[in-house]
Amino acid sequence: MKKLKNKGVWFNLFLAGCLITLFLSSFSFLGKTDPKQEIIETLKAQEKSWNEGNLEAFMSAYLNSDTLRFISRKGINYGHQKVLENYKKSYPNKEAMGTLEFDIIHLDMISKTDALITGKWTLKYPDNKENGGHFTLWMKKIKSNWLIVSDHTS
Is residue 27 domain-shared with residue 38, that is, in the same domain? Predict the structure, then answer.
């Protein structure tokens, strides 16, 4: 009879452990985020920074490295600092920057840490003039942040 009571205690402990594990695992999805949503949020933050006239904050979505590539009709530029300098030269003040809007056409996850984004960019100005084009971004998740490692903008 003593053995049966002991088995009942172990069974109850086992059952309680299973229930606790099931309960805790049901909340595991709360810590997970959708990588596509994280990327979209990064690009929205870029729009916001641009529209506030803050090029340094806009550039925080780019990998801060000499390996960063920015390709445009003018050629290929390498490095975070060079890209920032080119933006400052082309857009010396908030008025020159206009209002930026991104339109994401494709967002493809290449792996858990790499994404390829194709989209359209538009700069709108108060005089109803617009400038725009298309872009392809290679974004990589580095230390929990999605960063642009290559930008081909035309």
Answer: no
Residue 103, SS3 per DSSP: strand
Tokens of 7: 């088995």
- Across 19-47, average pLDDT: 74
pTM: 0.79
Query: What pLDDT does residue 73 have?
Result: 92
Q: Examine the pLDDT at 107 and tell me if it is beyond 70.
A: yes
Give the pLDDT mean for 27-32.
Answer: 50
CA pair distance 59, 83, nearest whole angstrom: 9
Q: How many domains does the chain have?
A: 2
Residues 79 and 144 in one domain: yes
Neighbouring C-alpha atoms within 13 Å toward the C-beta of 16: 6
List of E strands, the chain: 69-72, 75-78, 99-109, 114-124, 130-142, 145-153
One domain for residues 47 and 104: yes
96 band by pLDDT with thresholds 50, 70 and 90: very high
Q: Do both 28 and 38 map to the same domain? A: no
| Domain extent at residue 28 | 1-32
Provide the phi-psi class of 123: left if phi over 0, else alpha when psi is between -120 and 50, else beta. beta
Check whether residue 106 and residue 146 sit in a common domain: yes
